[in-house]
Design brief:
Number of helices: 9
Strand content: 15-25%
Largest sheet: 8 strands, mixed
Low-confidence stretches: none
CATH class: Alpha Beta
Number of strands: 10
CATH topology: Rossmann fold
Mean pLDDT: 94
Radius of gyration: 16 Å
Distance between the termini: 34 Å
Order of helices and strands: EHEHEHEHHEEEHEHEHEH
Strand order of the largest sheet: 3-2-1-4-5-8-9-10
CATH architecture: 3-Layer(aba) Sandwich
Length: 218
């Protein structure tokens, strides 16, 4: 494992889950503060034991000191948060854990992925889609049983180096990384997230439902 410094934009359920898992894996984590709600990130960290050791900084400061950025914001907040820091994100691996969900569990952007929208907001960042296909209850800790396959975490992106960094983080957090192709494949991962939501949140299946990749040898 290579210890990394993660900056996480968003400290809701998904951001908190990824932060706590990353801390247990030995990574440094900094939450980007919300300028519209001063002190909220600090209060959240102080009130959440599993976030022990997580720092809080202003967004640009959090990103500048990081070697990996995770975007765990509500999708509707991307434009306002990401566009102003596009320059600071240049050259960095940026993991997009968001999902653009429209009415009736449709994809809010139609035929364009949310990850591609994020890449357009920060055109010099190296965007990788990952950590979007499950609910936060899975991201806080990998659900597995002795002898069972390692749960799957697919990822997609265009930059090989950024994908390697993302794959390393995925493995550190206990998942099986699976490269599913270029960033255009993020649309498929976002539809997979919609299926998970439909099955679990609406269909009543257990929230620890995970996918796995089984290799069959004839």
């Amino acid at each position: 494992m290579t210890a990394r410094h993660l900056a996480i934009l968003g400290y809701g359920n998904v951001g908190t889950a990824i932060a706590s898992a990353a801390r247990r894996a030995g990574h440094a984590v900094t939450f980007a503060a919300n300028g519209d709600n001063p002190g909220a990130a600090e209060r959240h960290v102080a009130a959440t034991p599993e976030l022990a050791g997580v720092a809080v900084a202003e967004p640009l400061a959090a990103v500048v000191r990081a070697d990996l950025v995770v975007v765990a914001l509500p999708f509707r907040a991307l434009d306002a948060v990401v566009a102003p820091m596009a320059g600071a994100l240049a050259g960095l691996p940026v993991v997009d854990a968001t999902n653009p969900v429209g009415p009736g569990l449709t994809h809010a952007l139609g035929s364009r992925s949310g990850a591609e929208h994020l890449a357009a907001l920060a055109p010099d960042a190296h965007v990788v889609k990952a950590f979007n296909i499950y609910g936060a209850e899975n991201l806080a800790g990998v659900a597995s049983a002795p002898g069972s396959p390692t749960p799957l975490m697919p990822y997609a992106g265009d930059d090989p180096s950024a994908k390697a960094v993302a794959a390393g983080l995925i493995a550190d957090l206990g998942w099986e990384p699976l490269d599913v192709g270029p960033l255009s494949a993020a649309l498929d991962l976002e539809h997979l997230a919609l299926l998970w939501i439909r099955m679990v949140r609406m269909g009543g299946l257990d929230g620890h439902l995970v996918w796995s990749a089984l290799r069959w040898t004839p």
